[in-house]
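Researcher: Structure for this, please.
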Amino acid sequence: MAMETSVVMTLAFYPRGGSAQVARYLASALGQCGTSVTLCSGSLGPEGSETNARTFFAGLNVESVDFTAAVDAFAEGRDPMAVEVPIHPSFEDRPDVPDRVFADLDEDEYRSQVAPWSDLIGRVETPDVYHVHHLTHVNEAVRVHDQVPVIVHLHGTELKMLSAIRDGMSTWAHADAWSKRLIAAARRADRLISISPADRDLAVDLLGVSPEVIEIVPNGVDLTRFSVEPLAVDDRMARWTEWLVDEPRGWDESGVVGSVAYTHAQVRGAFTHLESGEALPVFLFVGRFLHFKRVPLLVRAYAAAREALGSATPPLVIWGGHPGEWEGDHPHAVAAELGVEGVFFAGWRGHDDLSVALNCADALVAPSVDEPFGQVYLEAMASGLAVIGTQSGGPPSFINTDPGRPDGWLVEPDSQAALTEALIAAAGDMTDTRTRGRNGRSVIERDYDWLHIAERVARIYSDVAANG
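Model: Predicted structure, token format:
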């Protein structure tokens, strides 16, 4: 049995994206295992905002670094990296955003990033273990207590940036300095956590660390939030109408929330059989509009599937896209250019809505290439959905791993034809698709409950605390 430990867990970013969800669920589950967790996170906006740390991590012991003034400065045309508490950088390089890519920040800007985190780490009670999500400037801040063991939780996005630097695919001015800085932080760590075997191998290659210091710990699922709870036809339609017509949050290249909306007739015609009134199957994508998510590819593959199947093709709901954030072609622009029907943009919404949306859909389609892990696949599987992913990154470690009991489809990365074929297969035999969904739920119950994951992490804490 793992001994009880006190942990300071850090997240350099304001809450958004997968690592914030992991930190929230893991910290909560660790508390149920008897571990005392203080969560230090970035924060944006007043309490009540989804990006506010105390709101997002409600119920946990939270301390935060507030980036609101930096974002306000950016809106006023000032440098958000030059204020007293600068906005955190990003692992992605996107134009016209306050959070510039890490590797574009110089030495002074790096020190400005470390300073507020050093202040925060110095204020909280010294723990038995630091659990640092991602390789960032926060790794330097926790060195204020060199005698305390450090666990670095790799989520994959840092590895993508380091890989781009090593392979000469970037023009960032300070890429080499950041590469050396983050690699040194990884090598100082007492233990690294990787979320998939593929990422473990990539970490060994990029960081020059021994495989023995890396623990493979997958993300988990909150089975109380994500479960199989099918909605009646009227309830299902009421929710799609709410999200797409009454309270639209879809957005186009303007970045304006609600700039993409639909009529009652459009939703009724796409989501129900007009003669029988029965609910039609639904394909769902969930995620940010980042390049590796391949959302434009999905839209093109869906257009090809619809050309083959016609109106029998389930509608495709694209759920997510942080407002104003996208890389490459905007998915809505691609859909408009193709003139494809049946694609609906629901916008960025909270996890409570997502758990319901998954029960309003029949298959998750997420053709990411080298997805570091893929939390939403697990959430979909827990909700009884079949999943379509690619033979890359994290998904092969949990999709179709039970011989003879497939729970989805794994297709060749970046193959529009293969993705279209999988969409046609899922739409053409819904009995098989729903069987795969039930198989996925069984896998999640067996291997991915957050409490089971937290017990594994607690044992790592005990080990490094005892041997630190």
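Researcher: Any notable elements?
Model: Residues 48 and 66 are 14 Å apart (CA to CA). The radius of gyration is 22 Å.
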